[in-house]
Structures are given as structure tokens and as C-alpha cells.
Fold this protein.
Amino acid sequence: MCQIEGEHSVTAEESIDLNGFLSSFKQFMDAATAQAHAEASETVFLSKLRNHFGTDPVHLPTVRETFEKADHPNLHLAVSGLLSGDGWIIPASTWRMMEKSR
């Protein structure tokens, strides 16, 4: 037998109103989802990106590059090297070329 506080107990011999249960469960999930969205705060990472760029990062263009699996270790070493130092400098000629491609 299952008993929920303030609710009718159900035994194995009783039939369950499936439509009623599903409707009640959907209402419960809708309320839980609405509450979770209302309580959700902006992540630290998103906040830092928004402050850095001065706009919502969702509207910014993205850059994507794919690499062969065999090149992943080299890419890892390159990115690790950049992050461990002062970063990288983009030459003005490359920057102008990137601006024209927008």
C-alpha cells in the first residue's frame, strides 16, 4: 500500500485512473519546472562573458575549427602553452582580414 500525506491510499487490488494520474503528474512537473526557472540565477561564466563583451554573448559570432584526431595532442599543447603565458597577439593584418570576412 502506498500512502502520501493528505492523499487517498492505493492498494494493489484497486485500479488507478491513469489519465488522472498523468494529468496530476504533468501539473506537478510544470510547476517544478516553472519554479526551477524562476530560481535559476545567471552562471558566473555567463556573467563574466557578458561583462567582458558588454553584450549578451548569444548574439556574438562564433568561430569553429575542426582538427583530425591525430592533431588533438598538438592542439592541446598549443592551447596549454598559450594559457600558461601572456596569451597570444593577433597581428593587425590578420585582424583586418577577419574583420572583412564578417
Observations:
- The chain is about 55% helix and 0% strand.
